[in-house]
Amino acid sequence: MTPSNTINCQQLEDSINQDILSSTVNCDKYSYEKCVEWINARGLEKVCLQFPDSLLSESAKIAINIEELLKKNVYILGDTTCGSCCIDEVAANHIGADGVIHFGHACLNPTSRLPVFHILPKNNINIQAFIDKFQQFFTDNNEKILLFYSVYYANSIETIWNILKDKYPNLVLTTLNCKSNVDFVDTKNATSAIISGRSWILNDDTCLEDYHGVFIGDNDKTLASLAMSIPTKTWQYTVDDELKTFEVTKNPWLRRRRFLVEKLKDANTVGIVVATLGIKDYMQALSNIKNILKQKNKKSYVFSVGKPNPSKLANFPEVDAFVVIACPENDIFDSKDYYKPMLTPFEVELAFNNSRSFTTNYCLDFRQLLPGGFNYVEFKPTDDSDVSMLSNEIRNTNKITCTIDKMDTVACKADGTVAIGKSGANFLLNRSWQGLEQKLGENNIEIATKGRSGLPTSYDNEPVKNNNQLTDK
């Protein structure tokens, strides 16, 4: 996090003047005036500018342009704590910021503390070609359609909507959960449900199952999150101005998730990885997962390691599976590099909630699993025994009496206590290497002597150095 006033303005002056004339860095692309207007309207004193890695090369120039209009300093955020699409409230709080301006792609999850202004990227789309293909695909003008779009095409949505709304009376436009430089797509109704950063209001006497979903954008994580979370009839997305069908049921990702749910059922020790510290209600989601695991006699540990990676989580071999509380667009659920299964909060309920069954509607937004959420169901644990599909062992028996409330197992090493608690302590005792040992009373007592002196490359008392000195003489 670097204050922009530490940058050498003299070195950048010629470059900035050149960029103002070009299309790379200009007021229209980054909406400098709207940024300043948003800051002044809220009376903010310390504002952070958050950039993804792809825009860090332009961050200094953008910050200086905003400072010239604002007449005060701003701060630059790079190398975010958990992910570039999420608001990094942790880094912003290091300097006591009271607002964040986010540049680039965003997941649009609601934040916990700080107000946020989004500068959405602007990609071009052939509007007329899209309209033609849309009308060819949906020949029935009375078809019920939900229109979604990537943040990259938010700048073109107003034109598309004005053309289609009169031709398709049952077309519903979704809005983005943010305050942004594209005011038309911002959510104005605070009571609307928010799923994966999108909001909408359906027509009277209709439900989501009555609609077709259309996504203006590529086949990416945003589309996958929306399509698996929202149970519309079908899903279409745009590829080179063509409408393609997104097959949720044929997604190989879902088949792999079913296997990981079985791994979670077999696990005795579960790690809960908090991979976000800025998304609203993440603490409530953490508490909910801990309560579910407690009722199922699963020992749980909570980890907060910033951006998770295989090397960090490999330090905890006693954990059988990890549950990750993260942004719906996090790549961690697609990775095969981790040594242990990485599961979502939704999969915890699939494994242990008798009220929830396995379907193709997969909720990646953990906020929707909480009371009042779109996918909330009451938790009903099952006490019936079943057979593991992986190990063929019987589960949910009384042979595992994991004491969650009473930490009554102590693992000792020599004269020092190492760990308290059954799962971690027993695992430590069974390891071949348990750490450094003191071996008190086993070594002879010796008088301290003078050690080596000099540089490690050649100590003073080494024979090689002594021979070299004799040769020089």
UniProtKB/TrEMBL annotation:
<dbReference type="Pfam" id="PF01866">
    <property type="entry name" value="Diphthamide_syn"/>
</dbReference>
<feature type="region of interest" description="Disordered">
    <location>
        <begin position="451"/>
        <end position="473"/>
    </location>
</feature>
<dbReference type="GO" id="GO:0046872">
    <property type="term" value="F:metal ion binding"/>
</dbReference>
<comment type="similarity">
    <text>Belongs to the DPH1/DPH2 family. DPH1 subfamily.</text>
</comment>
<dbReference type="GO" id="GO:0017183">
    <property type="term" value="P:protein histidyl modification to diphthamide"/>
</dbReference>
<keyword id="KW-0411">Iron-sulfur</keyword>
<comment type="pathway">
    <text>Protein modification; peptidyl-diphthamide biosynthesis.</text>
</comment>
<keyword id="KW-0479">Metal-binding</keyword>
<comment type="similarity">
    <text>Belongs to the DPH1/DPH2 family. DPH2 subfamily.</text>
</comment>
<keyword id="KW-0949">S-adenosyl-L-methionine</keyword>
<protein>
    <recommendedName>
        <fullName>2-(3-amino-3-carboxypropyl)histidine synthase subunit 2</fullName>
    </recommendedName>
</protein>
<feature type="compositionally biased region" description="Polar residues">
    <location>
        <begin position="455"/>
        <end position="473"/>
    </location>
</feature>
<dbReference type="GO" id="GO:0051536">
    <property type="term" value="F:iron-sulfur cluster binding"/>
</dbReference>
<keyword id="KW-0408">Iron</keyword>
<dbReference type="InterPro" id="IPR042264">
    <property type="entry name" value="DPH1/DPH2_2"/>
</dbReference>
<dbReference type="InterPro" id="IPR042263">
    <property type="entry name" value="DPH1/DPH2_1"/>
</dbReference>
<comment type="function">
    <text>Required for the first step of diphthamide biosynthesis, a post-translational modification of histidine which occurs in elongation factor 2. DPH1 and DPH2 transfer a 3-amino-3-carboxypropyl (ACP) group from S-adenosyl-L-methionine (SAM) to a histidine residue, the reaction is assisted by a reduction system comprising DPH3 and a NADH-dependent reductase. Facilitates the reduction of the catalytic iron-sulfur cluster found in the DPH1 subunit.</text>
</comment>
<keyword id="KW-0808">Transferase</keyword>
<dbReference type="InterPro" id="IPR042265">
    <property type="entry name" value="DPH1/DPH2_3"/>
</dbReference>
<dbReference type="InterPro" id="IPR016435">
    <property type="entry name" value="DPH1/DPH2"/>
</dbReference>
<dbReference type="InterPro" id="IPR010014">
    <property type="entry name" value="DHP2"/>
</dbReference>
<dbReference type="GO" id="GO:0090560">
    <property type="term" value="F:2-(3-amino-3-carboxypropyl)histidine synthase activity"/>
</dbReference>
